[in-house]
Amino acid sequence: MTRPLLALRNLTVAAGRAGSAKIILDSVSLSLAPRDIVGVVGASGSGKTVLSKAVVNWLEPPLAKRSGEVLFEGRDIYAMGGADMRSLRQRISYVGANPMGALDPTLPVGVQIVEKMRAVVPGVSRRDAERRVVELLDAVRIPSARNRFHDYPSQFSGGMMQRALIVDALVTNPALLVADNVTQPLDVTVAAQVIRLMKELTTSFNTAVLFVSSSLPVAREACSRILVMDGGRIVEEQSTEDLIDKPVYPYTRELVRQTPRIWGEPAATPPLNDRREVVLSLRDASQIYKVRKKAGFGGVNLVRAVRNVTFDVRRGDSFAIVGESGCGKSTLMRLLCRLELPSSGQILCSDQDIAALKGKGLLAFRGRLQMVLQDPFGSLPPRTSIGKILEDPLRTHRWRDKVRIRERVLKVMGEVGLPAELYEELPLGLSAGQRQRVNVARALVLEPEILIMDETLSALDQAEQFKLIDLFQKLQKEYDLTYIFISHDLAMVRKACNRVAVMYLGEVFELADNERLFFDPGHPYTKALLSAMPTLEQRRYRPEECLLEGEPPSPLDIPDGCSFRSRCPQAMNKCSRVQPSLTVRERQDFAACHLIVPPAASGDTGAAHRTMRRS
Amino acid sequence: MFVLNFLMRRLAQGALIIFLVSLLIFTLLRVVPGDPVRLMAGGMAPEALIEKIATDMGLRDPIVVQFGRYIGGVVRGDLGQSFVRPANGAATGGATFNDTTRGERAKVLSLILEALPMTLQLAAVTLVIALVFSGIVGIAGGLAIGRWPDKLAFYISSIFISLPNFWLGIVLALLFSVKLGWLPAIGYRGFAYTILPAIVLAVELSPVLIRTLVSSVSAQMTEPYVAVGHVRGLGRGRIIANHALRNASVPLLNLLGIQFSSLLGGVIIVEYIFDYPGLGLLTINAVLQRDFPLIQGIAIVTSAIFVLINIIVDLVATTMDPRLEY
User: Fold this and answer.
1) Which residue spans traverse the membrane (chain B) (predicted)?
2) Cis omega before residue A524 (within 30°)?
3) Furthest-apart CA pair in chain A: how many Å?
4) Closest chain A residue by Cα to residue B1
5) Angle at B150 between CA B149 and CA B155, to 5 degrees
6) Residue A212 — φ and ψ, nearest 5°?
7) A217 CB contacts (<8 Å, ≥6 apart)?
């Protein structure tokens, strides 16, 4: 047996001073052979990130090593001097979860990678270093790497930046790469590409990887062996497939059980009939922002954030709007809430144009449509008691009787599962899940008909998400609510929604019922999204077949024709000339792609739109 | 391309600002009480003569007409002639009304061009002293937040900000010129005369620079790229010198743009105390003598300098930090 590349022996790390210290890593031992790719998964707070930092000798106060050792090729890295450790950085590298903050914003990306290479590899000439960096930037498929070398971090998207940091980590040909939640900030299609690249490169460079992730399916994509952490200890270690098939430790079993299945389970939400009342209807709604051009003399660029969106939401729907960052879903949310007025088109709420509402009518509309925000921490005022937070909307909507207000608030708190004792408490001590319940209660207190959930669940862990989804479904039955979920999380959508709109670059590409969308998607982009989803199941769609390399084009410069053609493996000649419009596939299912053949074969674009409005 | 666009846009804005400043100054000077002709011709001059001189000089025309005439000259680079100063540089003010030297009154532009280099020299020396001193104190403080260098920086800036400059000027002159005889203090006969006033101004300028440096350096040291840089294998010295200071200098630079402008204003008292023949002294005398063309000229030139400095500062800041958009 070969000597392990990395070995941790009873490593204990604590936070805080000796008296009141909290143990973060509790006597962790593990070993990693050269060229091994090992995953570490665990819930938030289980000590994964501290483990990844401890391995690269990056423990900052209040964290401190208590006992144990971290052996890299047999040498304890905590017993080394600063200079030795620095030269060892050539062999151990690290990529973190925050690509945007990792480099100095005022210097070009390439220059900083060259600087690092020359700092840790003695005697490399600037020319050689530059050549190597450009070569690697090419290898991670950064388009026109030679030019991008001179771009600044702010000119890179999150996905590009994460690729650049992988280059930064691999440029010195390290023996060990520690990857801490590298895909967390990325969209699924980009994350899938990044993982694929990382695997390719580490294989060709013979690099071992310690892959830390909060998501079991992501770790499964990347690793052959997985360690499970819980409460600062390593509780289970198995090969990836065995771990998923036969988890032993209770936490692991829970983790595997809670990981959502997309295709393995029937939809939780049966398709509803299409003769229900339309409560919210978008007619060709577009939103265009003007931004000043930096170069050139004056003039503005037009950001077409939402483009000709048309769909109906019916009473009782759980309508999902999904898409990756920059697809316009947040702008659409602002339009739906009438925080902004569309630059063209209409939004009708019960056949009334919401742009025309004023005064009392607007207040009544706000009472009917409420929203729940994404960030459970930023969205609650920290110095206002929970009771007061929930009373405020009622007061705004002209409730005056104190006793009735209190009654109403307590009733809503009960419905969302908040104990009545919290009435006088400040939100400071609440968990993210409880805070999100306060947010839901604040929206529900006015007895709205429509709730808009803007990434409401994305800040919560899996177990808490499930509980809230159950709560939403219970409330929906009770009060005949209509939900609009804005989300990037397809697993959540599969579980909670009956109807889904897929957006890309401001356009709706596909609109279909849950079952149809996940089992028979009409648009190649939907297939790409599904193929990129991390899941524990056998995939229905293979990412290699569904998605070309690259990232969405900038909304400043949307290509003619179909805006997806730059990444679509099925792009044809026609796609660069004619923009496909939503075409009917079946009663309620539409997709905007030239490959779709309408069932009656008579459905030209106008007919498709007409069908939609009628249905 | 960006630089050209930037300069064109900002210079056009600057020209507008200067025009508005001169309009404002021009109007204000003419509505305040005090007749310059009375001062020029002397208290004994007959009323009719004063009216004649005033009409000859166009001072009885409507303000708009006067301003139009004036700005026409400014565009051609002619800031007019001083009301009171003769070109030969002899006595100021006119004690007698049968003034024979009227044709040789000094050009405003040449008066300013004489004084301006002196003030710019003073300002430059001040900046060098202030930057070196605050750089050492402020960067050391920012790198050791909560420890003694930080506290020292705080004490120094607190003391400096509470010293009035006229008092400090007199004390320093007393100490270094009168008692120790190391540095000259009054007037100007060589570079050494710049040092004492520059120290006084630097003491006034330093506290703001020190506080800005302490906070921006310490803020940069908590940025993720510093910690990540360490893990990427960059040494602490390299991270500080190449990255943290580079980022921290952007707020300092913006501050300097404003401070340099107020420095030009702040020299008035200090130049007066040290009898330093710069723009400040010229301004005081011009105001005391109701020398309208000179006051206007100084206002236009100083506002032009303000505008230029801020354009330069913004341009340098954008080359340092590409995210900035001006």
Assistant:
1) 120-145, 152-178, 190-210, 252-274, 294-317
2) no
3) 79
4) A295
5) 95
6) -95, 130
7) A259, A533, A534, A535, A536
| Smallest Cα distance from B325 to chain A, Å | 7
A92-95 and A176-180 strand pairing: parallel
pLDDT tens, residue by residue, A53-109: 999 988 888 888 888 889 998 888 888 888 888 888 999 999 988 888 899 999 999
In a mutational test of the B interface, the residue from A59, A89, A107 whose CB has the highest number of chain B CBs within 10 Å is A107
Domains, chain A: 6-258 (3.40.50.300)
In A, which residues are within 8 Å of B320 by CB distance? 106
Provide φ and ψ at A239, rounded to 5°: -70, 155
Candidates B224, B322, B323; nearest CB to A102: B224
pTM of the shown model:
0.79
Is the CB of A94 less than 8 angstroms away from the CB of B231? yes
Distance from CA of B103 to the nearest CA of A (A): 48
Q: Which domain holds residue B281?
A: 110-320
Top residue of B9, B223, B231 to mutate, by most chain A CBs within 10 Å, is B231
Q: What is the pLDDT of residues B69-126, one digit of tens each?
A: 888 888 888 887 777 777 655 444 444 444 554 456 788 888 888 888 888 899 889 9
In chain A, which residue's Cα lies nearest the Cα of B228?
A102
Residues A159-169: tens digit of each pLDDT: 888 889 999 99
Q: Look up residue B207 and give its two tokens.
A: 């506290």
What b/e readout covers B146-175, taking b as 16+ CB neighbours within 10 angstroms?
eeebbeebbebbeebeeeebeebbeebbee
Query: How many domains would you assign to chain B?
Result: 1
Widest pairwise Cα distance in chain B: 86
B80 located within any domain: no
Spatial separation of the C-alpha atoms in residues A44 and A64, rounded to whole Å: 20
Q: Do A89 and B231 touch (CB under 8 A)?
A: yes
For the record, the structure tokens of B43 come out as: 């208290």
B160 domain-assigned: yes
Q: Give backbone dihedrals phi and psi of B260, rounded to 5 degrees, phi first.
A: -65, -40
Query: Is residue B199 a part of any domain in this protein?
Result: yes
Are A271 and A279 in contact by the 8 Å Cβ rule? The answer is no
Euclidean distance between CA atoms A240 and A41, whole angstroms = 11
Residue B2 in contact with partner chain A when CB distance is under 8 A = yes
DSSP strand pairing (A507-513 vs A589-591): antiparallel
3-class secondary structure per residue, A213-282 = ECCHHHHHHHCCEEEEEECCEEEEEEEHHHHHHCCCCHHHHHHHHHCCCCCCCCCCCCCCCCCCCEEEEE
Whole-angstrom distance, CA of residue B30 vs CA of residue B70: 13
Which tokens sit at B132? 């070196």
| Residue B194's CATH number | 1.10.3720.10
Q: Does some domain include residue B275? A: yes
A 68-127 residues inside an 8 A Cβ radius of B: 86-87, 89-90, 93-94, 96, 98, 101-107, 115-116, 119-120
Instruction: Using DSSP bridges, classify how beta strands A450-454 and A369-372 pair: parallel, antiparallel or unpaired.
Output: parallel
The answer to whether B111 contacts chain A (CB < 8 Å) is: no
CB contact under 8 A, B5 and A295: yes
Parallel, antiparallel, or unpaired: how do β-strands A318-322 and A278-292 relate? unpaired
Q: How far is B250 from chain A (nearest CA, A)?
A: 10
Q: A361 in contact with B at a CB cutoff of 8 Å?
A: no
Q: Could A104 and B225 be called an inter-chain contact, meaning their C-beta atoms sit closer than 8 Å?
A: yes
